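Session log. Operator J.P. requested a structure for one protein chain; no other inputs attached. Running the standard single-chain path with token output.
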Amino acid sequence: MMQNERIHSLDLLRGIAGYGVAICHFFAFSRNIEIFEYYSFIFVEFFFVLSGFVLSNQLLKVIEEKKNLKIFYFRRFYRTIPLYIVALLFFTVLSGSFNPDFFKYLFFMQKIIPNFLSNDYFMVSWSLAIEEFFYFLFPIYLIFLGRKYPIFSLVLFILFLTFLKIIFADYYTSSFIRTATLLRLDAIALGFLLSFFIKKIDNTSIYIILFFLIGGILIFYFKNILNSNDSTYVLSFVFTSEIFSIILLILFYKYNFLLKNEKIIKFCKNIGNQTYSVYLFHLIILYIVTNVETVLINNFLVYLLLIVIVSSLVYKFFEKPILMLRPNYNE
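Structure written below.
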């Protein structure tokens, strides 16, 4: 298993995913270039595998000692919930969208069943709902079924949800299959499973080849996913993007040794710290810059600069103080 050292290349990957989503949404919603919405789907997929991977040590602590489950829950709460509530409130008020859907977002129920929302105004929250349900349900699953054979339990969990997606694909829309909260938990579990084997991977050349091959498939073939209701097509995208995310994580992990310069390491750490606020607040900033009747404001570089400033300030003055309140496992 992994050690507890900070892997700066994964901070960089997290930052690339966060800013990738934000940049894609600018061109998709401000410039009406539809293909960028599809690209944002791929960047979001990075988060799932990465999340399961970096949480592996904490999940193992839960397996080892049941008392650590409470600590795990508190740590996840402090990390994700306070800033999410602030962002949700802010965007709800700004867009004038306060209605019963607000409470569905608040309790991460927006994608629990098809067509549950009347107005999907805080779109990025679908991935957070998957994360939160994973945090709550998966450790309990591990305690009861994974204490002796965690790898077997993981594989069983992933295969079960894969089977469910295949079974229900013809009954739901392509969008719901891709974003359904309970059907996508396996994407995070894949990251946890990878953590058991990544130390044993020596030859990365095959993964570099697969990276370009599968990346090319995602870019040139699955771009029609936005307008497709073909279940096989949609499932192919989901599975391919998960495999692509695993390969990308392996490469970033294995080439962490290239990050030796202190300034580069500091940059990676900073961009990693900003990611959550970038992901939550970029739609708010996009809403503001696209609704101001000034060409200077509705500009990509201005948008990007505002994201950097806002996310940096939010992390320093809001996220970081809250994160310092998290309990430790050795207490």
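Operator note: DSSP finds 13 helices and no strands in the chain.
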